[in-house]
Amino acid sequence: MGPETVAPVASQPNFFFEVIAFFNDGGIFMYVILAIWILGLVIVVERFKAFYAWDVDGPSLMDMVKRNVLMNEVQKAIQACSNSKSLLAYVLKSGLKRANQNKEQIQDAVESSILEVSPKLEKRMGQLALCSNISTLFGLLGTIQGLIQSFGAVANADPASKAKLLAIGISVAMNTTALGLLSAITLLVAHQTLTSKAEKIQAEVDEFSSKLVDLLGTKKHLPQAQAQTQAQPAAPVTPETKSETSSAA
Fold this sequence. Notes:
By secondary structure, this protein is mostly helical. The protein has ten helices and no strands. 87% of the residues lie in helices and 0% in strands.
C-alpha cells in the first residue's frame, strides 16, 4: 500500500531540478549568461523606480504653475514644485525662483537645471543595452562551444559513445542559445520601454520650461507697460487747441 502511493509522487517532474539540469547541460556559459541577465534586471528595476518617481502629469503641473503666476502667487507655485520629486517640477522651480529677474536670467537658470537633470535620464541605459548585447554574444559563444564539442565527439570517440557525446554537445549549443536569446529579448524590451519613458520626460521638460520662461518674461513686463500707459500725461491744452474747440462748437 505504501510503495504504491509514494511511486506516483516521486515520478512527478520537479521544475527546480529541471532548471538545474538545463543549466548543467548547457555548460559554464549558462552561468555567465545568468549573471549578466540578473545584472541587467537589477538595472531595469532601479531605472523603472527612478523614472516613475521622476515622471509627472506635465500639462496639469504647468496649468497649476501658470494659474499661480498670473495671480501673483509665485511662492505657492514654488511650494507645489518642491512637493514633487519629478524632474519637470525641479526645472520649473529653478525658473520660478528667479521670477523677479529679467528673462535672460530666468532662461539661464532653467537651462542650467535642464543640463543637470538630463544626464539622470541617460544614467545606466548604456550598461543595460550592453548587457542585452553581451547575452546574445555569450549565447553564440556557447553554441560554438557545443558544436566544437559535438564534432570532436564524432571524430575521436568510439562508436559506442558517439551518440551520447554528440547529444551532450548539442545540449550545450541549444541551451546556451536559448538562454542567451531569452536574456537579450527581455533586456531589449525593457531598454526600449525605459527609453520611451525617458524621451517623454525629456520632451515635457523642454516644452514646459520654455513656456515658463515665456510666461515669466511676459508677466514681468505686462504690469510695467500698463503702469506706463496709466501714468502717461494728457496732451497739454494750447491756444490753438482752444480755438479749434471754439470753432467746432
